[in-house]
Amino acid sequence: MKYIFCLFFSLIILSANAFTDPNTLLEELKTEIAKKNIYDSSKEARIRKLKAYQSNLSQTNYDARFDTWDKLYTEYKSYQFDSAYVYVDKMISLSKVTGNKPKEYYSYVRMAFILLSSGMFNETFDYLRKVNVKALSNTDKVDYYFFLGRCNYDLANYSNDKYFSPDYIKAGNKYIDSAVSFCGNDHIMHTYLLGLKDYQEKNYGEGRLRFKKLLEKDMPISMHLRAMVSCSLGAICLEDNERQEGLNLMMRAAIADIKSSTRETVALYTLAELLYKQGNIKDAYSFIQLAKADADFYGARQRKIQIASILPLIAAAELNNTEHQKNRFLVFLLIITALALLVVFFLLMIINQLKKLKVKEAIIEGKNVQLNHINAKLIEDAKIKEEYIGQFFKAISGYIVKLENLKISIDAKLSMKKYDAIHTFVNNIDIKKERESLYYSFDHIFLKIFPNFITVFNSLFAEKDQIWPDEDEVLNTDLRIFALIRMGITDNETIAKILEYSVNTIYVYKMRIKAKSLHPDQFEQRIMDIKAFDYE
C-alpha cells in the first residue's frame, strides 16, 4: 500500500513537471547565467575570509590550520581543482608531520574526490588504496566507498563498450552497497546512493521514485546535491525517451550548479547536446561554450574531452546557422534596397509629375488671372459704353431737336425775309455753354463708373502736389486729361481735340503732372489700375 501511494505521489509530481513551460525554464537559466558572477563573488568572498583567518593562525595550532584548510578545500573542490589540490595537499603534509593517521586517511579521501572530478582515474584509485578504511568515521566511509563506486561508473561511461563497462558497473554497485551500509541515519545520502545504483542497473522506475523524493520541497538538501539529483533524474527521463522532461531537469540542474558556483558539472554539457539535437543551435552553442569555460576554469580533463567531442559539431552548426542568418539578412537587405530604390524611383516620378502639374497650374492660374483681367476689362468697357453711348444718344437727340427747331425757325424767317432776326438768333447760340454741358455730362458719367478715381489719383502724389476739383467743378482739366487716359484715350491729339487744347499743351500737362508723382515710372500704369465700380 505504501509503495502504491509513493508511486501515485510521484506521478502527480511528474505531471506537474511535465506542464512546466520549457521556455520559462530556459529564460530562468539565462537569467541565472547573467547572475553567475554574483554567485561566484559570494564564494570568493567566503574564500578570502577563510584565507585571512588562516593567515593569522599560529604555526603550532595544527588542528585549527587543518580545519581551515579543509574548509578552503570544500569551497574549492567543485570550483577549482588546482586550488583545492593545494589545500588538500597541505592537509596531507600536516597530517604526516603530526603523525595523525586518521586525518591523513581523511585527506586521501578528499584528494580522491578532486582527482576523480578532474578525470584522473588511476590517481584516484592510488590515493584510495592508501586509506585504512577502519580508521575512517562512518561518514568518511560513505564518501570512500561512494568515490570508488563513482570512479568505476565513470570508467564504465568512459569505456562505453560491452566488454569492460559491465564489469566496471558491477564493481561500482558493490562499492555503492558498502557506502549505503554506513549511511546510518543519513536518509538523504542513503536515498541518493540507491537511486544512483538503480540508474546504473537500468532500474529506472525505482530510481525515478528515489530521486523525486529527494527533490521534494521540504527535503533539506544542498544546492549542489540538488543539481546532482536533477541531473541523474534527467538522465533517467532521457533513457525512458521522455526528452522534454529530461531537458527540463537538465535546465534545473544547470540552474542549481550556477547558484552553488559549481564548475565541475555535467548538466550544461548535456543540455547543450540536447538542444543541439533539437535544432536550438544558438542556445546549444552558448551553453557548450559556457561548459567549456567551466571545465577550463576547474581543470576537469574528462569533461574537456567530452566537450571537445561535440563542440566542433555545435560550432559548425552555429557557423552554418550564422551564415544562413547572414544570407537571409543579405537577401532581406537586397529586397529592402530594391524596394527602397523602387520607392525612390516612384517618388522621383511623382515629384516630376508634381512639378509639371505645378507648372501647368501656374500657367492655368496665369491664364485665369488674364481671363479675369480681360473679363473685368470687358465688363468695364461694357459699362463705359452703356453709360456714354446712352448719354451721347441723349445729347445727340437733343442737338437734332435743336437743329430741327433752328431749321424751322430760320426757314420761317427767310420766307419772311427777316434776315436781321436770323443773325440775332444765331448769335444767341452759346457754344461754350454747350461744351461745358458736354464736359459736365462726361465728368458725372466718368465718376459714376470710377467713383474712387479722384481719391486714388491723389494718393499717387504728395499732399502738396495733389489735384482736387473746385467746389463748382466735377473734374478740372488736369483730372479730365487722365480721366480720358483711364477711358483708354491715350493719343495726345485726340485728347487735345476733345478738350480744345493744342497737342503741345496736352503733352506739357501730362509731363508736368507725371513728374510730381510719387512713382513717375509707374504713373500711367497706376492710373490704368484704378478700379471701376464693383462689377464682381
Output the radius of gyration: 60 Å
What class, by secondary structure content?
A: mainly alpha
Reported for the largest beta sheet, the result is: none
Number of helices: 23
> What's the end-to-end separation, in Å?
110 Å
Report the portion of residues in β strands: under 5%
Tell how many strands the DSSP assignment holds: 0
> What are the secondary-structure elements, in order, as H or E?
HHHHHHHHHHHHHHHHHHHHHHH
The stretches of 5 or more residues where confidence is low (pLDDT under 50) are 1-19
Helix content: over 70%
Task: Give a verbal description of the structure.
With 536 residues, this protein is mainly alpha-helical. Among the domains are: 319-424; 430-528, no CATH class. It is built from 23 helices and no strands. The chain has helices at residues 2-18, 22-34, 36-55, 62-76, 81-98, 101-117, 121-129, 138-159, 165-181, 187-200, 204-214, 223-239, 243-259, 267-278, 281-298, 301-415, 419-427, 431-449, 453-458, 477-486, 492-499, 503-516, 523-528. The model is unreliable at 1-19 (pLDDT under 50).
